[in-house]
Amino acid sequence: MADSPRDAVPAADVLAVHQLYGRQSHAIDSGRAAEWAATFTADGRFRSPSYPEPAIGTAELTAFAERFHAGCEESGERLRHVVSTVEVRTGQSVETLRARAYLQIVGTTSGGEPRLHRITVLEDELARTADGWRVRRRTVHRDG
């Protein structure tokens, strides 16, 4: 069933969500933990089956991203977050959106072949802030 016109998300907001996901991927892949955490609201929540506990709030999100990048450096592998097939839908109010996307995490080593670590589905609740759209709640689901 197609969305009705009143459920359509403005193109500018869809583009902003794509940009947000791009900023997130580049920040975490480059070890810019505070920048990655800033793509979430101050009370943002990140939950993934790959990690035992959710990260909640800016301090925990920053620490999570720092640990993630440190693990990559220890392993000598460069990881890339590849977000695709993004679907942006209306949220509970004009100040929120819902988004769903596929996330592939691909790793490479110096001179090595790329290796697919996992394919997941992102389910996000986004909030409009003074600084643009931010993730309020992210739930990651593994495929397969």
From TrEMBL:
Ranges in a coiled coil: none
Family annotation (SUPFAM superfamilies): NTF2-like
InterPro entries: NTF2-like_dom_sf, SnoaL-like
Domain named SnoaL-like: residues: 12-139
Name of the protein in question: Nuclear transport factor 2 family protein
Superkingdom per UniProt: Bacteria
